[in-house]
């Protein structure tokens, strides 16, 4: 079943979540019509490879054209209209930046997988629940409402300033008219009456000046309060959501909404600034005793400039954290001399700033790293599909200076992967007489010099972003805090949903909890140390919990991904639990689990019944990536044979737990069907019969477990069937035994 088919079967509350991340950037119609094709492409790799992204974009447009041809034949006018509009939109929006659509589609697919994993969980995880707090949503709506109200107030004040300007011009005209009269005329009763009228106008001017200043002050106060409270909280929440998304959590939206709020506030502040400049202009033409402008205007202008400085400083954010294109699901782990990408955005989107802001990237000097490649670029609105003012560095690479590299041999692996660094960015904004220096930094990154350090480096990134909201605590691992086990388990499930397409259910998480704690207790409030997670060896093992788990992720990704996504690999189940599950099942029922003693190993256990009714269990020696590289795991399950004493080889695997016929579960993953393999012709003139490796184990009378499955017989299923037709079971068994004993 395709991923999209699974999504469509979700409950309405999950479908509403899916609906939120499909829009004109990637319309749901295309996701629906091209579901199979979209899921078969590597959008993740394309998101960091421009040439690959361009090819995928062109192929996507071809797929849309084919759908257009199909619906044209069906004369579906509405769908024809929508597809033409969507095709034009996709080509126009992404032709200049094909990697952007690859990022969008990759994120959508990943978010679908996360929602599917969440739907399979009995309860929502604590981290995800906190990110979807209804109070947060209400605050978002309040911020947008208040920003809109502030913008309207600033515009209304513009009208008041214009009225004040008109009133003062009339006063100037009438006053100058009186001044131009002869002295004799000034003593007339009419002129005296006019002087009284001018005094009344001056009183009105004074009242209006005070009123305008008061309104400006209220607008400034509202902006100040909004920035100090709700907007700051919104920005911090977005940054926290970004942290969680970087370690596999829900995608972080809301940056476009924040950009809209920041931009409207900046426009309002610049509008207020112009109003104050206009008041200063009116002041030069007319002032009087008790004039409020010279008293209040400097303070208001100082406050406006202060708010603009703060607004700009907060608006400079890292939109996409540093990430190597070769490891898109492991952001913030950077390898020396390997390129990484990072994207920044200025949330204040003003046309005057397009191509006017040059951003410089640097790295801290903790171990005297330097950045090679283009490290100064201009922000612009042309490269982003949504027109944001941003800059993306695509060709940066960290290099370690020789003086620091020379001491590297004295450093242990944990010291390297627990050492945090940050990529810093600085720029300067010059606008309307203001000069504002801006600085921001990435989340802490871990530098590695060898890809073998990647697993432990990624563990450091997980632990940091799970445990703290602080974006720049580079000394975090000097005394790393403990993590709540319930939150850690949620993050571990995200590793599976984001990296291998299917998260962990509650039973699988319980097994991991028991492995971490060593006993079965409630783990809601259990605090787990960093050492126990990543540094201390598991009891009786030569590796840590994290190394064991990372090896399983690697095994799934490279060798059993389709089986894992289909949910047929129970995986995390102890030997004791598997026997409880299998003991009452039909003989031949089996389950698949990951080895607890071998790194990156998978095994299967089946239940059998002796003639006296006694239930027995058999577990095959785990298959590792070396064996699975030679023979697909689905084919192993299909062709696996066991030689029982005095019996011919037979496949003991009949039903996948709980009662799924083996071929029904794995049939679509077989590299070829047994009946598709040619039988040898009678005369043998049609060439060779294709051969396959058949895994065979031998179970002795006094053994409950088979021998190693490493003996792979080069025999096709059809050849084996022919041999059974012409040879007795004893002869076949003798031949197999000879092969087994000589290997």
Describe the protein's architecture and organization:
Belongs to the transcription factor STAT family. Pfam families: SH2, STAT_alpha, STAT_bind, STAT_int, STAT_linker. One of its GO terms (biological process) is type I interferon-mediated signaling pathway. The protein folds into 4 domains: 3-120, Orthogonal Bundle (Transcription Factor, Stat-4), CATH 1.10.532.10; 134-313, Glutathione S-transferase Yfyf (Class Pi), Chain A, domain 2, CATH 1.20.1050.20; 324-401 and 416-449, STAT transcription factor, DNA-binding domain (Immunoglobulin-like); 506-669, 2-Layer Sandwich (SHC Adaptor Protein), CATH 3.30.505.10. The relative contact order is 0.06. Helices cover 52% and strands 14% of the residues. Helix 6 (50-74) runs antiparallel to helix 7, helix 10 packs parallel to helix 12 and helix 11 (189-246) packs antiparallel against helix 12 (255-285). By secondary structure, the protein is an alpha+beta fold. It has a 5-stranded mixed β-sheet. It contains 26 helices and 21 strands.
How many H/I helices?
Answer: 26
Mean pLDDT: 83
Global morphology: elongated
Distance between the termini: 41 Å
CATH superfamily of the largest domain, please?
Answer: STAT transcription factor, all-alpha domain
- Percent strand equals 5-15%
CATH architecture of the largest domain: Up-down Bundle
Strand order of the largest sheet: 16-15-14-18-19
As a whole number of angstroms, the C-alpha radius of gyration is 35 Å
Q: Given this structure, which CATH class of the largest domain is correct?
A: Mainly Alpha
Report the CATH topology name of the largest domain: Glutathione S-transferase Yfyf (Class Pi), Chain A, domain 2
What count of domains describes the coordinates? 4
């Amino acid at each position: 079943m395709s991923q999209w088919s699974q999504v469509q079967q979700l409950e309405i509350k999950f479908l509403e979540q899916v609906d939120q991340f499909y829009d004109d950037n990637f319309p749901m119609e295309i996701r629906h019509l091209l579901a199979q094709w979209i899921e078969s492409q590597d959008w993740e790799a394309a998101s960091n490879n421009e040439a690959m992204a361009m090819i995928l974009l062109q192929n996507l447009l071809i797929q849309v054209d084919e759908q257009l041809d199909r619906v044209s034949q069906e004369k579906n006018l509405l769908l024809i209209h929508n597809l033409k509009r969507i095709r034009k939109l996709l080509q126009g929006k992404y032709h200049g930046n094909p990697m952007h659509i690859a990022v969008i589609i990759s994120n959508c697919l990943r978010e679908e997988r996360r929602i599917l994993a969440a739907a399979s969980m009995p309860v929502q995880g604590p981290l995800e629940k906190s990110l979807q707090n209804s109070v947060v949503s209400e605050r978002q709506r309040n911020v947008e409402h208040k920003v809109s109200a502030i913008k309207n107030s600033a515009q209304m004040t513009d009208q008041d300033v214009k009225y004040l300007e008109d009133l003062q011009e009339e006063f100037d005209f009438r006053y100058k008219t009186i001044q131009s009269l002869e002295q004799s005329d000034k003593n007339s009763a009419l002129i005296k009456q006019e002087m009284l009228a001018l005094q009344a106008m001056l009183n009105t001017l004074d009242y209006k000046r005070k009123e305008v200043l008061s309104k400006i002050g209220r607008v400034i106060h509202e902006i100040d309060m909004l920035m100090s409270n709700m907007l700051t909280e919104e920005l911090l929440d977005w940054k926290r959501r970004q942290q969680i998304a970087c370690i596999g959590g829900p995608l972080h939206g809301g940056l476009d909404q924040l950009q809209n709020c920041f931009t409207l506030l900046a426009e309002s502040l610049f509008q207020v600034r112009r109003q104050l400049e206009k008041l200063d202009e009116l002041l030069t033409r007319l002032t009087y005793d008790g004039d409020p402008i010279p008293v209040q205007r400097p303070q208001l202008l100082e406050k406006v400039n202060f708010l603009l400085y703060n607004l700009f400083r907060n608006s400079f954010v890292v939109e996409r954290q540093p990430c190597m294109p070769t490891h898109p699901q492991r952001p913030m782990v950077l390898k020396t001399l390997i390129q990484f990408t990072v994207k920044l955005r200025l949330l204040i989107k003003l046309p005057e700033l397009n191509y006017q802001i040059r951003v410089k990237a640097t790295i801290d000097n903790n171990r005297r790293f330097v950045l090679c490649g283009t490290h100064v670029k201009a922000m612009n609105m042309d490269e982003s599909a949504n027109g944001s003012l941003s800059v993306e560095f695509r060709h940066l690479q960290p290099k370690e200076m020789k003086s620091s590299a020379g001491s590297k041999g004295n450093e242990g692996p944990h010291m390297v992967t627990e050492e945090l660094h940050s990529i810093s960015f600085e720029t300067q904004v010059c606008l309307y007489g203001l000069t504002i220096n801006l600085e921001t930094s990435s989340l802490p990154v871990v530098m590695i010099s060898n890809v073998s350090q990647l697993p432990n480096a990624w563990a450091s990134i997980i632990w940091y972003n799970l445990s703290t909201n602080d974006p720049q605590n580079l000394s975090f691992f000097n005394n790393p805090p403990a993590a709540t086990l319930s939150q850690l388990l949620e993050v571990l499930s995200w590793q599976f949903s984001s990296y291998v397409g299917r998260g962990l259910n509650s039973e699988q998480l319980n097994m991991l909890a028991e492995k971490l704690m060593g006993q079965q207790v409630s783990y809601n409030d259990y605090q787990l140390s960093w050492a126990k997670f990543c540094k201390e060896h598991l009891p009786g093992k030569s590796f840590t919990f994290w190394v064991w788990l990372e090896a399983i992720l690697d095994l799934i990704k490279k060798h059993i991904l389709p089986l894992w996504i289909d949910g047929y690999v129970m995986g995390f189940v102890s030997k004791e639990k598997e026997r409880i599950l299998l003991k009452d099942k039909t003989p031949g029922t089996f389950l698949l689990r990951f080895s607890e003693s071998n790194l990156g190993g998978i095994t299967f256990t089946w239940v059998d019944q002796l003639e006296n009714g006694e239930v027995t269990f058999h577990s095959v020696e785990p298959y590792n990536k070396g064996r699975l590289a030679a023979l697909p795991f689905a084919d192993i399950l299909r062709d696996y044979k066991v030689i029982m004493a005095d019996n011919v080889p037979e496949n003991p695997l009949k039903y996948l737990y709980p009662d799924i016929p083996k071929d029904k579960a794995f049939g679509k993953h077989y590299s070829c069907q047994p009946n598709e393999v040619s039988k040898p012709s009678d005369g043998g003139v049609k060439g060779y019969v294709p051969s396959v490796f058949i895994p065979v184990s031998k179970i002795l009378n006094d053994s409950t477990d088979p021998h190693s499955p490493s003996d792979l017989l080069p025999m096709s299923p059809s050849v084996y069937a022919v041999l059974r037709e012409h040879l007795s079971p004893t002869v076949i068994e003798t031949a197999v035994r000879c092969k087994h004993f000589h290997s």
